[in-house]
Amino acid sequence: MARSGKPTDGRKSIAVNRKARHRYHIEDTFEAGLALVGSEVKSLRNGKVTLNEGYVRLENGEAWLVGVHIPPYEQANRENHDPTRARKLLLHRRELKRLFGKVAQQGYTVVPLRLYFSRGRAKLEVGLGRGKKLHDKRHDQKERDAKREMERALKRH
């Protein structure tokens, strides 16, 4: 029997940072693991996480996820995790070197794009991006509007 329209790559999406693609030109993406504690994983499985204000800080040869809010797990004991603590990202050395080299250039930053489970492990898709100017955002909005109008016109006729 055929499966329903679910992805077959074994990835269950938890949260998506929609603002990131609006604010940045994403040039490259990387998949990073997360160093989490048990109550954070349980909370992620409930799907309650906020990526919008998060960013990646690169220091001392390591990448850290900062500003992402994972609420405390309700059924955990009193030793629950801090909701906004910095979490270490697990990347390959060559990926870290590439990120460090690009971020050293003017205008590049690393932003979290999507948080998901892949084969039972929490993964974070991070993007290497350059900030958009206001006119770039307006241009993107015009393109989206034009595409939407074309689709409506084709649908009518």
Structure description:
This protein has helices at 18-23, 38-45, 93-104, 134-156; strands spanning 11-16, 24-34, 55-59, 62-66, 87-90, 108-118, 121-131. The chain has 157 residues and is α+β, with helices and mostly antiparallel strands. The chain has a single domain (11-132), classed as Beta Barrel (Small Protein B, Chain: A), CATH 2.40.280. Strand 6 (108-118) and strand 7 (121-131) form a beta hairpin. It is globular.
Keyphrases for this structure?
disordered N terminus; globular; 157 residues; Small Protein B, Chain: A; alpha+beta; 4 helices
Q: Terminal Cα separation, in Å?
A: 37 Å
Order of helices and strands: EHEHEEEHEEH
CATH level-4 homologous superfamily: Small protein B
Beta-strand portion reads 25-35%
* CATH class membership: Mainly Beta
CATH topology: Small Protein B, Chain: A
Low-confidence regions: 1-5
Q: Care to count the β-strands?
A: 7
What best-fitting shape do the alpha-carbon axes yield?
A: globular
Structural class: alpha+beta
Layout: helices, strands, pairs:
Layout: E1 11-16, H1 18-23, E2 24-34, H2 38-45, E3 55-59, E4 62-66, E5 87-90, H3 93-104, E6 108-118, E7 121-131, H4 134-156
